[in-house]
Specification:
Low-confidence stretches: none
CATH topology of the largest domain: Hemagglutinin Ectodomain, Chain B
Helix content: 55-70%
Strand order of the largest sheet: 1-4-5
Order of helices and strands: HHHHEEEEEE
CATH class of the largest domain: Alpha Beta
Radius of gyration: 44 Å
CATH architecture of the largest domain: Alpha-Beta Complex
Strand content: 15-25%
Number of domains: 2
Shape: elongated
Distance between the termini: 139 Å
Structural class: alpha+beta
Amino acid sequence: MEQSENTKQEIAEEVQPEQESEQPAATAEEVQAEPSELQKALALAEDYKRKWYAVTAEYDNYRKRTTATASQKYAEGVADIVLKILPIGDNIDRALAVCEDEKMKQGLEMIKTGFEKTLSDEGIECFDPTGEEFNSATSAAIAALPCEEGEEEGYVKQTFLKGYKKGDKILRYAQVIVTR
């Protein structure tokens, strides 16, 4: 009989759940709160992806800024050179105005045509506001003369130096004489 009581006791021990360990078992919420290795890896990958997008966007912005700055510097360099050669064109115009020799005049006109073509190839336009209403955005008044008969006040009577512009940017203001 002793044996059957021992066997009954052993069977009872096997059927009974193990006694609780010192730490209580984790609840379902706690198990979900701790991210698994896969979730940690996915979160890290998402973080790297977000950082990569930010760096890519910053590089794209940097490239655009650099390109814009370079083209602006080129345009400013062209404008500086043009301002230095405009007096040559002015002198050609003056020489044409006083030239009496026909062959010399033809040569000067060819030079002037080449000069104007070079400017137009760079997108530079010449403007002469003679006869137009004075506009301080495109012209600089160097003198004012009284109105003669039939003239209105505030109009450009004579252009001393033609103006030049590239697009909307004025490279050189026209120097004009205005009626008052």
